[in-house]
Structure formats: C-alpha cells, structure tokens
Amino acid sequence: MGFYTFFLLLSLLQAPLFYLSATSDDTLEQGSSLSVEKPNNVLVSPNGVFSAGFSLVGENAFCFAISFMKSSVPTIVWMANRDQPVNGIGSKFSLLRNGNLVLLDAGRINLWSTETTSPVSVYLQLHDNGNLVLYNIRNESLWESFDSPTDTLLAEQKITKDASLLSSKSHTNYSSGYYTFYFDNDNVLRLLYQGPDPQISSVYWPEPNEPSFRAGRTTYNNSKTAMFNSTGYFQSSDDLVFSASDCGVVLYRRLTLDPDGNLRFYSFDEKNKLWIVTWQAFSQPCRIHGICGPNSLCKYDHALGRRCSCLPGFKMKSNLDWSYGCEPVGFNYNSLVNNIQESGFVHLTNTEFYGYDKEYFQNYSLQRCQDECLKSSSHCQAIQFIYWTDTGYYDCYIKTQLLNGHQPYFQGDAYVRLPKSVFSSIENPMKELRLECPQDSNPSLLNRTYEKEGQNRFLKFLLWFAVSLGGVEFTCISLVFCFLFWNRLEDIDKDKQGYMLAATTRFQKFSYDELKKATRGFHEEIGRGAGGIVYKGILPDHRVAAIKRLINDGHGGEAHEFHTEMSTIGRLNHMNLIEMWGYCAEGKHRLLVYEYMENGSLASKLADSNALDWEKRFGIALGTAKGLAYLHEECLEWVLHCDIKPQNILLDSNYHAKVADFGLSKLQNREMPNNSSFSRIRGTRGYMAPEWVYNLPITSKVDVYGYGIVALEIITGKKPTGSQFSESGRMTENHGRLVKWVKEKMVGADSSQTNWIEEIADSRMGGKFDKAKLEILVKVALQCVEEDKEARPTMHQVVEMLQCHEEEKIFDTPKVPDPSCESGLLYFDNTEILLDV
Ligand SMILES: *[C@@H]1O[C@H](CO)[C@@H](O)[C@H](O)[C@H]1NC(C)=O
Ligand SMILES: *[C@@H]1O[C@H](CO)[C@@H](O)[C@H](O)[C@H]1NC(C)=O
Ligand SMILES: *[C@@H]1O[C@H](CO)[C@@H](O)[C@H](O)[C@H]1NC(C)=O
Ligand SMILES: *[C@@H]1O[C@H](CO)[C@@H](O)[C@H](O)[C@H]1NC(C)=O
Ligand SMILES: *[C@@H]1O[C@H](CO)[C@@H](O)[C@H](O)[C@H]1NC(C)=O
Ligand SMILES: *[C@@H]1O[C@H](CO)[C@@H](O)[C@H](O)[C@H]1NC(C)=O
After folding, report:
1. What SS3 class is residue 373?
2. What is the pTM of this model?
3. Nearest Cα residue to atom 4 of ligand 6
4. Which domains does the chain have, with CATH numbers?
C-alpha cells in the first residue's frame, strides 16, 4: 500500500512544480520544460525532419540534442552538453521566465545555459532547417543552435571565427574528440589534430608545409565565414570551394568532421534512408595526423581498410584507443643516447613519420646518416632517408619523435633506432591490428552525487515522506567533473617541418608565364590527345614535367570551377596513377602539369618491335588494374576514367604503369548514372563498352570493359580494331573482334588443352611467358569484356584475381588453392563462351 500512496502523492505534487510541458510541437513557451523522463517531450520541426529532445548516450546518461529523424537511426546534428550527460531521472531542459534557456541535471544542477535574459517574453522554436532559435516577442533572435555547431554543419549554417566543428570521440561516443575544423588566425580554414597528449597538436589540412596560396587559399579576407548551400556547394571566405558529387538534386545534406579526422560531405538517400559520402577531404586516411597515435604505423587499402600496428619493439598503450599509440617494451631512448654500441636500426620501406625533424643533411649516405643519429645529442629515435630524383642524391633527416607513421604510399624509407637487445624479440612480419571501434559500446554509468544543500522544501518533504513510509532508498552518487583538455586553437603547434614531402600532394597553381617558360614557349611536343597537346617542360624547381595544354572548348569552364575540379583530381594519389602536380587557369588558358614518364605510353611500347617481355606486360596489367581500382573504389567510385586505352597508360623508367588522363571526363556522380553530362559518348573506338551504344547507364563497369580490351591487347599484341582479323569493316556493335578472336581460339582448342595460349600470346615474346599467369589474365580479361555489365568483375576483384596469382609465385608455395582467392574468381565456363559467340 505504501508504495502506491507514495507515487500517487508524488505525481500529484509534481504537477504545479514541473510547469507546463510542451508536447510534439515546434515551439517551447516561456516557463515550460522538456523532461528527460517523457520520451514524447520533444520539439519537432514543422516538416517533421528534425527533433530536439533528450537522447540516450549511455546507461542512465542523456544529452540534449537535435536529431535528423529520417535516417533509419536518427542522426545527431547538434548537442548542448556533449561532455556532460545528465541523469535519466529528473533532468529538464527549461526556458525560464527570465529568458534563460537551461539544462538542469536531476532538476537542480545547471550544466548548460544560453545565458540570455529578456525583459519581454520569449519562445524557442525548431525550424525546418534544423536550427533551434530563441526569439523574443519582437521576433528577434537571442540565441541559435546554428551559432554553436558540434561536429556537423547543415545547409546555410556558418562556420565563423567563433563557430568551429569539433569531432566526436567515436561513432558511439559523442563527447569531444581530437579533430577541429576552424578558421585559423590567418583567416584560413584548416583541420587540426589535438591528441590525448595535450603537447601534441598539428595542422594536417591544407598541406601544412605549403604556403596556403598553393592550396588555392587566401589569407587576406578577414570575414572568416564558410558555409554550404542546399545545392551542395561549399564556399569559404578563404577561397576554399568544393561541391558534392551529386550537386543539385538532394534534399538533405550535412558536412561532418568525423571521429577519424576526415571531413566528409554527406547526402541523404531517401530510398535507403542512409547517408552517402559525396566529398571528403582525404582519400588516404593514413595521412590524417594522430590516427594511430605515436610510435605506430598506419596502413590502408581498400580491401582491409585502415589498420594500425606498433613499431617493432613497441606495444599498444591502451587496448581501447589507438590514439594513445604505442610505448617501448623494456627500454627507453634516454638510456640509449649515450650508448652508441647498444643501438641498431630497423629498416621500414616506404614509410614516413611526418614531422619532428630535428636536423637535416643533404647528400648523405645511409651510414653517415645513421652515424649522425647515433651521435646526435637530441633523442634521435629514427632517421628518414629519402632519394630525390630531381637532385639525384639521398637526404637524411633526424627524427626525435615518431608520429603520424604511415605506409606504403611514400617514396622514402625510415630506419627506427632500437637497442640491440630488442632485435631478437622482434616479430616478423609486424603484427597488424585492425582499427576497432573503441569499446565504448557499454558506456559507463553516470556517476554523480547531488549536493545536499539547496534541497527545496518539496524534496525535504518527499524525503521525510519516504523515510516515514520506509523502504525507499535514495542513493547518493558522486558528481564527476569532466575536465576537457581541449586547448583552444591559439596554441597550435607551429613546429617547423623540416622538409617538403615527396609523396604528399604537392598540388599547386602555376602562372601561365611560369609554364610558358618551363616549356620554352611550348616547344617540345610529346603527345597529342583529345583534350589537348602535351609538352615536355622543366619546372622552376627542376622537376621534369609533362604539361598538357587543353584545347579551349569550354572544357575548362569558369576558373573557380576548374580549380575545384582540379583540386579533387589533384588529391587522387596512387602509385599507379599519373601524379598531377598542378594546374594553371588564367584567362582563357587551362593547363595541367603532370609528372613526366620516361618510357612513354603502353601504346608506343606495344607498337615497338622490340617488344615488352612477359614480366613487364603482367606488371603493367596489374598496375593498371590497381590504379583503376583506386579511382573507382577508394575514392568513392566518383571518378570514372571513360577512356581506358594503351595511349592513356604511361610507363615510368622502371616500366611501372601509371594511368593518365583520369578525371577529365568530369567527376562522375554515382547516384545519377544518367547524369546529363554523360549524354555525349566518350571513349575510343574499340575500347568502348556496349553501354555507350545502347544508351544504358554509365558506371565504373565501362572502365572495366576498356581494361579487358587493353589486357587482351597486352597478351596478344593485337589492336582491337586492327586489320589482323579475317572480316573487315566497322567494329561490331557489341563485341570487339579481338574478343571474338580470342574466344574462338579458346573454344577451338578445347581438345588439345593449352595450345590455344601459345596461339594467342604475342609471338614477339618468343614463347617466353608464364602459361598459368597468362591464362589467368586471359580469363580475367574475358570476364571484363562481358556484354552484361553485371557479369563483369569490379576493378578491385580484378586486382585480387591477378594478385592472388602473384603471391603464389613470391612465396614459392606449392599450389594450394587459397579459398580467399578462389572466391574472387568467377570461373570461366566453356559453355558460356559458346552461347556468347
Ligand atoms: C513573429 O513570427 C510569427 C511566426 O513566424 C508571426 O506569426 C508573428 O506575427 C511575428 N511577430 C512579429 C511581431 O513580427
Ligand atoms: C549554391 O551556390 C551555387 C554557386 O554559387 C549556385 O550556383 C547555386 O544556385 C546555389 N544554390 C542555392 C540553392 O542557392
Ligand atoms: C570575403 O569573403 C566573403 C564571403 O565569402 C565575400 O562575400 C567577400 O566579398 C570577400 N571579400 C573580399 C575582399 O574578397
Ligand atoms: C654527393 O656526395 C658525393 C660523395 O660525398 C659527392 O661525390 C657528390 O659530388 C655529391 N653531390 C652533390 C650534388 O653534392
Ligand atoms: C566517452 O569518452 C569519454 C572520454 O574517453 C569518457 O569519459 C566517457 O565515459 C565516454 N562516454 C560514454 C557514454 O561512453
Ligand atoms: C562511482 O563513484 C563511486 C564513489 O565515488 C566510486 O567508488 C565508483 O568507482 C564510481 N564508479 C565508476 C564506474 O566510476
């Protein structure tokens, strides 16, 4: 009986105290509250898209948040108290009579407020755009949630001097994380990493070693504002502009600084109720600072995602969070400093530790560089040893801290100093750990004590009542103050970086005069393509470049559009893509600056009677596939090449293949395959997929088709439209005749097993080739040229199929079929060929 009386009394007594409660409505009136205990106590925008109310963030822990309600799981776009959740009992969000908007924990502790006052009456309203605004009766805004973003920006919401984005700790923990998107004191919009160790902070975007004007930014506009509009066009006062790949059509977008430090633009896919990435600042996540913490290495590939591992001799500091990095096992660098005999070096190829170069020596041998490290008085922990093709010698850098370590997209090596005693215990290969979500799926219980003083008469009465009835226990919980180690942006570590990076995007804007001078007045022509003429040139910093002068057919577009497009392409960075060093957009001139490739194009090498040997051919086929896989998948499948042919596959001095001319066919938007910008057929006869002819949607599979033809050409040395085949005339609509010819040889030779391979292989190889590998390449190529685009593999699958075969050779293992390899290979069936021909 006692309990029921108690609760009955409680609820009766509650009524006058808890003011009026607003229910599903877009407006909160003065003097009313939203209660954490009532799930339907929320504000809903008139269009029903956004809601403002309490969100559960942990066991009995709530934050007041604005959420986007149309996604399958509501998306939090703003939070009042991300670092100090409130109790699930008694907490309220109240608009006080004096005009102050407050968040009260358990009804009493003021955790957050807008600190507004108003002599006239006020009301709080949630708008259709997600903005929560406090108005007075004259409709003047006193406070807006748009002015204090957390990690997300909505359309028309501004980043300003005082409003920056701060990432969340993880996808499940909304408290303040390690990354900030903000206006720096010099008016430039940047990304900053500030790790759990408050000593470590660094700007990582735009490229910190470059003057900001190289990234197309200006420091001269003091207005410090940036926002994107609903079309998907982001514009900042420092001249940064970018647009979503689905610019125009989408209803809801957000720009979020994700917990991994990558800034991503998302569009809402109404059909699947999902957010889709339509732009991101980094396509190589390992270049984001701090991602694996100190003394570790970050590796990324599309198949496995991002992985962190500790350096040899180190172990993880916190199993829950890579941000803390790794610590030495049983040694410290202090004791090594005066003990040269005890030190050795572990060689890590293609590895960079960004930053913290204490000293720098030009033209040093490895031995001299290591000696410098050993005798250095600063705590040398490693050396960075880099060969520069432009100078022709090695440079040596002494590292005093090992941060931002990444592999393998770096053209230089690192040698990590370790005590010799540690060498024997080093595991080889290094143990890699997949980056797990930190284990905060079981959030901690809110642990708070509430002050005893200030209890109002009602509570005293309740206590008395409870005690007198007996059986009700009140637990005191201790109040934990969370101190945020978030240092404001003023003290960014402006540590001087010792060197310019070879492999990071050194993307820059050139003047027309600079390029004219570099090419000696467009003197030496090295190639001609649909888009323009290519000249050889030497840049002011002595790099040899291929400079493409675009024919002015409106291709260039407006200078700022051209800039946006070029900076997206310039960010694509892969060893099998031609590196774009910069561009020029001045008046009518549109020029592109690429690295120069010594061995010209695959087309010229295939035409050469001094033919490529099999090793080179297979390497080129694999490299090309990797380059395309990167374009299609790692970069969100928004870059279609649309003109894969041997003329666009270039070869460096070591015959490594690099795909050229990508991205010029306008950045493709994968959500709109029928994009009108693709209405015009592009490509080259013989390499064009049937989709073009039948006016079907254009997807990345058109490049797969082109690749298949190129692969057949590499094998046979025959052109797809060549006159070597019996019939003559136009290319058949559906299938190139090269494909038909290869299939006929295969089927015809069915009985005599592998003889067909010798028949199709380019006779100029003189029969010197690996039969098994060639057979794989033929099979993969034929899958690629399937008429039905769904039957073609993705470029990523192509790489896997070719690579699986590679690895068998490298490790010289007996041929045990690797199940993971088999799964990728769609087996070729002879009956299918018969049907197809
Ligand atoms: C304030 O805005 C509301 C709704 O937008 C409108 O109905 C009201 O007339 C406005 N009041 C004044 C004083 O402008
Ligand atoms: C967004 O900005 C772009 C570029 O200035 C402009 O073309 C477009 O019309 C704008 N969209 C809206 C909805 O204002
Ligand atoms: C500065 O940037 C703002 C916002 O983008 C723009 O409106 C303004 O014209 C710029 N000022 C100058 C001097 O370029
Ligand atoms: C680099 O060092 C080597 C050996 O010390 C020397 O012979 C060579 O001239 C140096 N090259 C340059 C460009 O300084
Ligand atoms: C989120 O992370 C912070 C800092 O690591 C931690 O103190 C807090 O308990 C976490 N919150 C939840 C709900 O797990
Ligand atoms: C909660 O607070 C109590 C008392 O201060 C303490 O003993 C306990 O360890 C805390 N629990 C957690 C999970 O922090």
Report:
1. helix
2. 0.61
3. 478
4. 8-148 (2.90.10.10), 155-175+204-283 (no CATH), 292-441 (3.50.4.10), 488-595 (3.30.200.20), 603-834 (1.10.510.10)
